[in-house]
Amino acid sequence: MKPQIVTFLIKCPDQKGIIAKLTHFFYQEGFNIVSSQQYTNEEEQRFFMRLRVASDASVVLSKDQLEERFARLAEAYKITWKVDYGRKKQNVAIMVSHTSHNLYDLLHRHKEGKLHCDVKMVVSNHEKLKPVAEMFGIPFRYLPVNKDTRIEQERDLIELFDSNGIDLIIMARYMQILTNDFINHYPSQIINIHHSFLPAFQGANPYRRAYERGVKLIGATAHYATEELDEGPIIEQGVERVTHESSAVSLKKIGADIIMAFDECPPGDSEKKIVEKAVERTTKWIERCHRWLKKNQELYNYKQVLFPIVQGSINHRLRKKSIEELIPFSTCGIALGGLAVGEEKNAMLDTIQYCTELLPKDQPRYLMGVGKPSDLLHAIRNGIDMFDCVMPTRNGRNGHIFTSNGVINIKNEKYKHDFSSVDESSFHPWGAKFSKSYVRHLFNINEILGLRIASTLNLAYYLNLMRDAREKISEGSFNTWSNSLLRQMKDMKGM
């Protein structure tokens, strides 16, 4: 056997001396143990182990000989096992529904070479996240499902995964319960990312239940999917400690001019009861934040102002309730949160219009997390003053550049020999200076300058758009100008 790292995945009935038997076997065969992880499920009395061993020139066994000898040991101790020689990356499929943050994180890590695997596809029961997959150049497969088509959809999934040689399936907020038949078809090959601690907070809405119990640690759990929902072996957990005053205390200390109160932002497709709880909790948090700031003196000889954040999803009644409860705490500005989180665009714009009619006229209105250039123009037309969004830099890092002619994906093959400027009309000189071919080349060789050029041009586009908007407002011609620009953007991809 050529020198290499070999990984054994082992499970069996728990029994005295099993670790000694396993490690002694590899010692006898001339292997060195690189790492060993094991645990015992006390209730089921099952033993699990992941053992990485290194071979060197002293190991004369072939792969077949090694597996034959280990099989004899496995039979004696009723061991179920798999072995990986690490020569090929695992082929991975990511399953998602509406929520994008897990998908973005996984695809970004994969793009940066931080995940030792090949992401072959993104599969979803909704079409919403198709642009995210396309942004990273990953094939997207849409397989809708309902209670009547569940079995048929899973058959299609199995055919799709098996025909593409998928080794590992990651459920990154895939909001469907898989059947036992599907799970058993891929034993120890399905990893679920659960958005809270297991085993304490299983099922849907775990954060809500954690909050109601006063839990001060939040986190997420990666575990293997089994027939029992959220009961599979835990792979890894991440934690963050929270307090009721974290937002006010930390932001006050770093000298923020504007402090955003805590809020709860439910997904756009949340049930009404969840949205109601979010509104209630958001109000309680600003009450606490306001009390804390009132009790504690200024740190830097200037007033730090507190912005409430209106919640309520696209429900007008709940938005009105949230605004009425938060206005007493709004002295210098107020924010609209909970939009662009999965709801339809028309519903988002309708909600913005409704809210701005109720918000104070003498205070800045801050729209959080929005968005595309056309969204900004629509929002300004409805009285929004301030924005924040990661889109210019996030999209830039992934090769999507906002130009005067719409969004271009600079990584596309068609730009390979395109020596025209990225955007001759750009507010920034780099738009005319660099060719599409050159910037594409930078992305292809993973040169960070490509990411900087794309992100800088996107920021320049947004800054110029806002500058023009302010000028047109001052001139009294904003409505005419924005109408014309919105008509142009309608025919531009990604705007």
Write a concise keyword list for the protein shown above.
single chain, 495 residues, alpha/beta, Alpha-Beta Plaits, Rossmann fold, TIM Barrel, 4 domains, 7-stranded mixed β-sheet, 4-stranded antiparallel β-sheet, 17 helices, 19 strands, globular
What does this structure look like?
With 495 residues, the protein is α/β, with parallel strands linked by helices. The chain has four domains: 5-84, Alpha-Beta Plaits; 90-241, Formyl transferase, N-terminal domain (Rossmann fold), CATH 3.40.50; 246-386, TIM Barrel; 392-479, no CATH class. It contains 17 helices and 19 strands. The strands form five sheets. It has a seven-stranded mixed sheet. A four-stranded antiparallel sheet has the order 2-3-1-4, with helices on one face. Strand 5, helix 3 and strand 6 form a beta-alpha-beta unit. Helix 10 (316-326) packs parallel to helix 11 (345-358), helix 13 (391-397) packs antiparallel against helix 16 and helix 16 (448-475) packs antiparallel against helix 17. The protein starts with a strand and ends in a 5-residue tail after the last helix. The relative contact order is 0.06. The mean pLDDT is 85.
